[in-house]
Design a protein that fits this description.
There is one protein chain. The chain is α/β, with parallel strands linked by helices. The chain has three domains: 6-145 and 267-330, FAD/NAD(P)-binding domain (3-Layer(bba) Sandwich), CATH 3.50.50.60; 155-264, 3-Layer(bba) Sandwich (FAD/NAD(P)-binding domain), CATH 3.50.50.60; 343-457, Enolase-like, domain 1, CATH 3.30.390.30. The protein has 13 helices and 22 strands. Strands 1, 2, 3, 4, 5, 6 and 16 form a seven-stranded mixed β-sheet that branches. 41% of the residues are buried. The model has no long low-confidence stretch (mean pLDDT 97). Bound molecules: NADP nicotinamide-adenine-dinucleotide phosphate. Residues 149-150, 178-183, 185, 201-203, 208, 234, 263-266, 312-313, 343-346 line the site of NADP nicotinamide-adenine-dinucleotide phosphate (NAP). Residues 149-150, 178-183, 185, 201-203, 208, 234, 263-266, 312-313, 343-346 line the site of NADP nicotinamide-adenine-dinucleotide phosphate.
Length: 462
């Protein structure tokens, strides 16, 4: 029998890789992990965590205004200091990164702060030291990175979500290209922090694939925040000028800004890792192809998270890493269940969603009932302002099972997390109706919505 130096060598210390290493070590496996950037990965260092901190910062803008209506006298106009936010964020992500590192070490995982590449199904090479390590299993957990589309002249002047957190100067004028999660979240953050934001995208509305009630209400919410929304318009060239950047636009207009954020999707980080050399199948997008247990066609090489380019969300990577470690070293047999993954978009207004959109439900089910509402949040009754809360419950009209819930408004993400439990348990609309309301809250609308807004019956004849 070959004596390997490690049972598991993990490449990439992000959410999925760190979880796999710690769980595997807990099962008694000898684990090593390599990270070429900072321990914590995209989520902790330049994704979910710093983004949410900036969302909190951005929401004060309205709270200062609303406070006056509730009797607070704010003597001076509040001023925002970008550099203070950046350094507070840096302190927090450094603290979290250290915690990740400490927890790995406490679990007995050996850490290499350098790049590792695969040289055979059971060997990796550390690129800085040249050391070759033999290992029973290799886990590729290298995540993904921004794609800079469209490829136009001057695209090198644009930035991605990697750079935006640490800009040396606050961009007074910001163009955002794209209308997915990242684009709308940063547009919303920077508009509230005081930037003049223009969002440019090719589709007719933001957030393709989300339920229409969310797309329409979010568009209104972004417009109310002063964001200039240009659907069907993309930049065709970016030039540096004496005062910033000039964008030529596909509608023949032009725009002058301080920064251009391109948020047109992310691609897996799998290039140059030695995957081809080890015989690992990679798809046309460059993602590692894995089976339902996260193992590639090479039985000793596995992959979790964004590098597999399936559901690119942190909790999914964590679950994949956890179950893989359980299976390899703890006798586990469970597969990740990809149904009913709740998700939030941390714009203001916020989005929280779980389950099928109305459009998907109508494709899949014979009879679909819709319960929908939109109302002013209680806070706005005194504070004023255009804020709305919108909710939609999508129900299978034949079985009464709730198929999806879509919410826009304060705390929508928190609501979606809890709704996911009910939907997993197969809750029916009648269970929502039988649940006692919590008053006064926005969420109580979900259990008091009695009037069906629409019923759609699929024409089975054709
Ligand atoms: P995304 O949500 O897939 O959105 C990509 C955007 O870029 C869409 O508006 C798309 O337009 C546009 N686009 C794509 N190719 C283009 C091209 N060639 N020319 C012009 N426009 C193009 O991607 P993302 O916002 O970059 O986020 C990446 C991933 O990060 C997401 O899939 C998500 O899983 C994750 N993420 C999650 C959260 C969260 O959970 N809150 C937050 C941030 C990121 P169309 O709509 O027309 O295709």
């Amino acid at each position: 029998m070959t004596a390997y130096e490690a049972d598991l060598f993990v490449i990439g210390a992000g959410s999925g890789g760190v979880r796999a290493a710690r769980i595997a070590a807990g099962h008694g496996a000898r684990c090593m992990i390599a990270e070429e950037f900072r321990i914590g990965g995209t989520c902790v260092i330049r994704g979910c965590v710093p983004k949410k901190l900036y969302v909190y910062a951005s929401r004060f803008a309205e709270e200062f205004e609303e406070a006056a209506a509730f009797g607070w006298n704010i003597p001076q106009k509040p001023e925002f200091e970008w550099r203070k936010l950046v350094s507070a964020k840096e302190a927090e992500i450094s603290r979290l990164s250290k915690i990740y590192e400490t927890n790995l070490l406490k679990s007995g995982v050996e850490i290499f702060e350098e790049r590792a590449e695969i040289i055979s199904p059971h060997e990796v090479r550390l690129t800085k030291t040249g050391r070759v390590i033999s290992t029973k299993h290799i886990l590729v957990a290298t995540g993904g990175g921004p794609m800079m589309f469209p490829a136009i002249p001057g695209i090198e002047h644009a930035i991605s979500s990697n750079e935006i957190f640490d800009l040396p100067e606050f961009p007074r004028r910001l163009a955002v290209v794209g209308a997915g999660y990242i684009a709308v979240e940063f547009a919303s953050i920077f508009a509230r922090l005081g930037a003049k934001v223009t969002i440019l995208f090719r589709a007719s509305n933001v957030l393709r694939g989300f339920d229409e009630i969310l797309r329409e209400n979010l568009r209104d919410g972004l417009a109310h925040a002063g964001i200039d929304i240009r659907s069907g318009v993309l930049p065709t060239a970016i030039d540096k000028t004496g005062h910033g950047l000039r964008l030529d636009l596909s509608d023949h207009g032009a725009l002058e800004v301080d920064q251009v954020l391109v948020a047109t999707g992310r691609a897996p980080h799998a290039r140059g890792l030695g995957l081809e050399q080890a015989g690992v199948d990679v798809d046309s997008a460059g993602a590692v192809t894995v089976d339902a247990f996260n193992t590639s066609n090479v039985p000793s090489i596995h992959a979790v998270g964004d590098v597999t380019n399936r559901v690119n969300l942190t909790p999914v990577a964590i679950r994949e890493g956890h179950l893989l470690a359980d299976r390899l070293f703890g006798g586990g047999v469970a597969q990740v269940d990809y149904h009913l993954i709740p998700t939030a978009v941390f714009t203001t207004p916020e989005i929280g969603t779980v389950g099928l959109t109305e459009a998907l439900a109508r494709e899949e089910f014979r009879c679909v009932d819709i319960y929908q509402t939109s109302f002013r949040p209680m806070k706005a009754t005194i504070a004023g302002g255009p804020a709305r809360i919108a909710m939609k419950i999508v129900v299978d009209g034949d079985s009464d099972r709730v198929l999806g819930v879509h919410i826009l408004g304060d705390d929508a993400g928190e609501m979606a997390q809890l709704l996911a439990i009910s939907l997993r348990l197969g809750a029916k609309k009648a269970d929502f109706d039988a649940t006692m309301a919590l008053h006064p809250s926005a969420a109580e609308e979900l259990v008091t919505l009695r009037t069906r807004t629409a019923r759609y019956l699929r024409d089975e004849a054709g």
